[in-house]
Amino acid sequence: MSELAKELEDFINRIPKTETHLHVEGALPYELLTEMDEERFPEIPHFRKPDFRYPNFVEFENLLIDHAVVWFNSAERYHLACKRMFEKLVSLNVKYVETSFHLHMIEFIGVDGPEILSAIKSAAPEGLEVRVIGGMVRNGYTDVMRPILDKLHEWDELDGIDLHGQEWLDLENWTPPIWKRCRDAGKIVKCHAGEFGGPEKIYEALDQLGSKRIQHGVRAVEDKALVKRLADEGAVLDVCPLSNEKLQVFPSLEEHSLRELVDSGVTCTINTDDPLCFANDILDEYRALAQRLGFSKSELAQFAKNGFEHSQLDRSSKSEYIRQIDEVLAQ
């Protein structure tokens, strides 16, 4: 490793970081599956190899679900997986995480939602602030889920909500009222948009859901007026560059829109999305931005600062982590 590479590695390791776009089920530590059944789950499966690319979102989604349901069958299993997951984040100098769990697992495994929520939060180690987001799909307003989704704003321990899954599906009428109730209750309101759907899905998130936290949003560059609006209104894109490459949102990372978004004044954070499926961690993301997209250390530092600035931490904690980033940058 060259001296420059060592210097970059040291910098990425030392700066405090956030993860604000991380799915619990998609972050299941793969080694837990291997420990359970080594024959069924070999140490390096084909989809975790560096050159693997998912042919489409549905195949990715099916693979994720097929692996996640093997493990997640109880609140205790959520706790055990999150304990391992959070310990790894601490080792990478992550200080704050917003992680979403798939609310429809309540219907699938028959476990109470607040029980899962408590299991996740109780796994948080010292030194890591955890906020939990409830994720739902666009066509998930079933007879079982309807009374649950309608009361999300009353869940004290739930920090926010997100709309994820197959982005190209229509936004159904039940969705905006839930987002409004949760927004009025002071919860984070997110929406996956601008990944497999175009700019129109980002407009939908902004105008119909009132969400200024967009998960991905990378196809905003197809509409220059939208990019300007995102910058002017201070919207935040929680971007996952390696996920976008693995899912072929862009042909390669080198063709990613992140540089254009940043240069246009759009606020972005850097995250991992679904490490179970992509075999990535937050250090990989920062390395790739420096080595393959030419982002400088000061720009990497700004991504980290953005994560803290738009977190739910108190002002003194935000200021302290931003001070630490500046201190490492100065050295």
UniProtKB/TrEMBL annotation:
One annotated GO molecular function: adenine deaminase activity
Signal peptide: none
GO biological process: adenine catabolic process; hypoxanthine salvage
Cofactor(s) listed in the protein's UniProt record: Zn(2+)
Pfam family, one: A_deaminase
Keywords: Hydrolase, Metal-binding, Zinc
Domain Adenosine deaminase stretches: 16-327
Cellular component, GO annotation: cytosol
Tree of life domain: Bacteria
Keyword Hydrolase listed: yes
Cell inner membrane is among the record's keywords: no
Family affiliation: Belongs to the metallo-dependent hydrolases superfamily. Adenosine and AMP deaminases family.
Name the record gives this protein: Adenosine deaminase family protein
